[in-house]
Design goal:
This protein is of the alpha+beta class. The protein contains seven helices and nine strands, in the order αβββββααβαβαβαβα. It folds into two domains: about 70 residues, YlxR-like (Hypothetical Cytosolic Protein, Chain: A, 2-Layer Sandwich); about 110 residues, 2-Layer Sandwich (60s Ribosomal Protein L30, Chain: A). Strands 6-9-7-8 form a four-stranded mixed beta sheet, sandwiched between helices. α3 runs antiparallel to α7 and α4 runs parallel beside α5. Bound molecules: zinc ion. The site of zinc ion (ZN) has 7 residues, from loops. The site of zinc ion has 7 residues, from loops.
């Protein structure tokens, strides 16, 4: 039997015309000034268009004039995704679900209290080796994101080389935004 509830949450990508779960797609809305706004939280009023998180689909949609924008939409999407990532990392830290600082982080990695390891792009080689050794040993996923200055900023502290995310729920959300961002780089 068809499941009408399931269809409700499916939308068509304006780039490739494939139907996908709404959660997998980026939503955009047209502002009253006819500007495209990237609506990551799917909360803005107005009729939205949906697009796969993919540079290809964005290019196709622009080429076919399914979306028209005077702005650099790719740069805008990356910025929105990074803002979202930053907010999530800060939120996790405030909620006590993130750990930072060499001693604390090493301890959290060793005791398997970390689900996800985020490394600054400018982390030193030795420290990086050490963290990766611990993470790989425990099967902890890792990504490179931001520089140490920005990572520190997000935690309201001095520059940080790495942050460990302790809760799976935060880890999965952060990972999904990292993956979406990668598709536009
Ligand atoms: Zn698509």
């Amino acid at each position: 039997m068809p499941n009408p509830e399931k269809n409700q949450f499916q939308r068509t990508c304006v780039g490739c015309y494939n139907k996908q779960s709404r959660n997998e797609l980026l939503r955009m809305v047209l502002s009253p000034q006819k500007d495209i706004i990237i609506d990551l939280d799917s909360k803005l009023p107005g009729k939205g268009v949906y697009i796969c998180p993919s540079q290809d689909c964005l290019n196709r949609a622009l080429k076919r004039k399914r979306i028209i924008s005077g702005k650099d939409l790719r740069a805008e999407i990356i910025k929105k995704l990074e803002d979202k990532l930053g907010a999530l990392i800060g939120l996790a830290y405030k909620a006590g679900k993130a750990v930072s600082g060499q001693t604390n982080l090493q301890l959290a990695l060793k005791s398997k209290k970390t689900k996800l390891l985020l490394l600054a792009n400018d982390i030193g080689q030795n420290l990086q080796k050490n963290y990766l050794f611990l993470a790989n040993k425990e099967g902890i996923r890792h990504y490179y994101i931001f520089d140490s200055l920005r990572l520190g900023d997000l935690l309201g502290s001095s520059p940080r080389n790495a942050v460990g995310i302790k809760e799976e729920k935060f880890a999965l959300k952060i990972e999904s935004y990292i993956h979406q961002r990668e598709k536009f780089l």
